[in-house]
Amino acid sequence: MERGPPLLVLASTAQLLVSGGDERILPDPASGRSRYGCGAVPEPDLVALGSSTASIISGPAFAAAAALRERCAEQLRSRAPEQVYAAQMARQRAALLDYCGLDEGDGVAALLAASGTDIHLLAAQLCQPRHSVMLDPSETGSGVPAALKGRHFSAHTAYGGAVAADAALNDWHGGAFTLAPRREDGSLREPAEVDAECAAFVDQACDAGETVLLVLTDVSKTGLIVPSIATALALQKRWPQRLRVLVDACQFRLAPATVRAYLAQGLMVALTGSKFVSGPTFCGALLAPRGLLACGAGAAQPAGVQA
Fold this sequence. Notes:
By secondary structure, the chain is α/β, with parallel strands linked by helices. It contains 9 helices and 8 strands.
């Protein structure tokens, strides 16, 4: 008698939502909460006043995750885990593109990642620039500079492996130049001054024959867009062969039409599902025009991504 594939028993929905990431997602054994104070199940009576990362999944989102778990469990009765995984990942990519008003004919790849920081790491590994330019990490995420430089930003990877934080992922590594939007007293600098500083660095590096990844943050934790969209687009037009632009739209605080507009300009877009989309604390996707990068489902990835 021919036997089917071995039965795979899935963990609970709550357990699955706090797996597949670095130590930021892990719950404390005593409290059941992450270091951001977030649990894995909805808390409808909670008034959420935390930062973008410190958010808890909503009731409808948890129900959707539970339904997905049930579909996977049912399919695993007759199909191999790899087949179920690939099919559901493809469905998730298609659903995200559909939400943004895109389809397969638009030529946009959706690469899923464990967190916003992982998305920056992925973009940097795919581009492997000599320099990255980003907003001050206090406005975005503390691990982003390391990720953009090709280094581990945590002591644990999304694959569950223990690593040395700040160690190189592979042979490639780059530098990170940060833009400070505020003075030491916290007051805002003139946006034109910050834009000029950004343009000067990019122009000097590109003129010297070096490649640059520019991170356009839309928007930061305090509501800033840095550098300005006009500056980023002007630099991209000036240095089409040496500059790549990644829009940090993590937390998804912009309209789908804006996402499409960025992609139409040849920019990559980083999105996460926490906070404003009310998904789990850590999850995200990198959207990129397929012609911009040799990326996508089934494409060969740099060794640093596999790390």
